[in-house]
Design a protein that fits this description.
With 178 residues, the protein is of the alpha+beta class. It has seven helices and five strands. The longest helix is centred in the middle third of the chain and has 31 residues. The protein is globular, with a radius of gyration of 18 Å.
Length: 178
């Protein structure tokens, strides 16, 4: 699947703790994953897949794709996402002078409200994706929404918690080498 990746970046791919049932989580270095890879991964495995684009461990955009082409997305750590996505004024010369101002706070508040409004649909998309992946329907929509609203220090931890809450088997410690 990853043969098209140059050898140097391919050497930086790390396998995370496996999940029972053949589910695997991989960690790629910054800038390595492209959106087309998700479609290729789903086609190659014949199974739904998702990717979390994590930025400095602060925020992540999770994108899931099912074998039927159904796609969903959700932001993890909405405060940081809102600050990242807030619409900058057109006449802005230096972003650093804008950050922390009342105008910045207002723009972040507007973006946060937009992202908050998307959470119910994001949770529904995640649940439908997990169901299509064959995960038992134990996930609670309210718990998924709560997780999407949460403020955790590390987006990677939120991503793992999202997979757990969706009902995927919990990651296990690797078996010791014989």
């Amino acid at each position: 699947m990853f043969d098209s990746i140059d050898q140097e970046p391919k050497g930086t791919v790390q396998a995370c703790r496996p999940r029972p049932g053949g589910w695997q989580t991989l960690r790629f270095d910054h800038g390595l994953w492209e959106d087309d890879h998700l479609l290729a991964l789903v086609e190659w495995t014949g199974a739904p897949a998702c990717v979390a684009h994590v930025s400095d461990s602060d925020v992540a955009l999770v994108t899931g794709l099912g074998t039927d082409g159904q796609r969903w997305q959700a932001w993890l750590n909405l405060d940081r996402a809102a600050a990242l996505l807030a619409e900058e004024p057109e006449d802005l010369d230096d972003v650093s002078l804008w950050v922390g101002t009342p105008d910045f706070d207002e723009a972040v508040g507007r973006k946060r409200a937009e992202l908050e409004a998307d959470v119910p649909a994001d949770a529904e998309g995640a649940l439908a994706w997990a169901a299509a992946a064959g995960v038992p329907a134990a996930a609670q929509r309210a718990r998924i929404e709560e997780l999407l609203h949460s403020r955790e220090t590390f987006a990677e931890d939120l991503f793992e918690a999202l997979l757990d809450e969706l009902g995927f088997p919990r990651a296990t410690e690797p078996s010791p080498e014989p």
